[in-house]
Amino acid sequence: MVTLCLSHGASAQTTVLIFGDSLSAGFGVAREAAWPTLLQQQYPQLKIVNASISGETTAGGLRRIDAQLAQFQPKIIVLALGANDGLRGGKIDDIEHNLNELVRRCRAAHAEVLLVGMQLPPNYGLDYTAQFKAIFSKIARQQQVKLAPFLLAGLNAEHYQADNLHPNAAAQTILLQNVLSSLKSMLKQ
After folding, report:
1. How would you write the pLDDT of the chain (189 residues) with one tens digit per residue?
2. Does the annotation mark 166 as catalytic?
3. Which residues make Cβ contacts (< 8 Å) with residue 33, sequence separation at least 6?
4. Domains of the chain
């Protein structure tokens, strides 16, 4: 976990907690190139806390969220989990339940939530990938939270590292824009 900005008067800053997996942790890219760091550079008046962990699942997020909420008391949470659950073929009902509970806990802590959508390659079949993709918009609609439809929207083969899973440094500005497309209106409030 990395706190990206701690300046004088930090307690008065609006804290934005990035709570995700390797896609938000910046796996395989320099810390200064990862999209949460780029967000901090673009919005120096905010305190961006990146509590993303490579390999994190929604179940792991549930085990960690309460401590993160208590420690950082964020005004906004960018919730970017679920990809690892889907890549492991997790049960759709379990993924949906965990994400719903994460959103519920964040809202109970008086934080606004930006839920970041994810999509999967068709490894587990079209039915599974369609159900997985639908989880995010369903939760956003039911819990009335903002949705960034797809973190990796607009990426093509040249934007990935050799593993074909993790975005490279050149892709980080695109990820940032995919998040900011929904986050900007929350930052103005």
Report:
1. 544 443 333 346 899 999 999 999 999 999 999 999 999 999 999 999 999 999 999 999 999 999 999 999 999 999 999 999 999 999 999 999 999 999 999 999 999 999 999 999 999 999 999 999 999 999 999 999 999 999 999 999 999 999 999 999 999 999 999 999 999 999 987
2. yes
3. 26, 169, 172
4. 2-187 (3.40.50.1110)
* Active-site annotation holder among 22, 24, 52, 182: 22
List the catalytic residue out of 52, 85, 166, 182: 166
Q: Distance between CA 14 and CA 187 in Å, rounded? A: 9
C-alpha separations of 140 from 33, 71, 104, 130 in Å: 29, 25, 11, 16
Query: Known catalytic residue: 163?
Result: yes
The DSSP secondary-structure symbol of 117 reads P
Catalytic residue at 127? no
Q: Is the pTM of this model over 0.85?
A: yes
The kind and range of the H/E element at 68 are: helix 58-72
Q: How much of the chain is helix, strand and coil, in % rounded to 5?
A: 50, 15, 35
Instruction: Give me 155's structure tokens.
Output: 């990426």
Q: Which two tokens stand for residue 149?
A: 């439809």
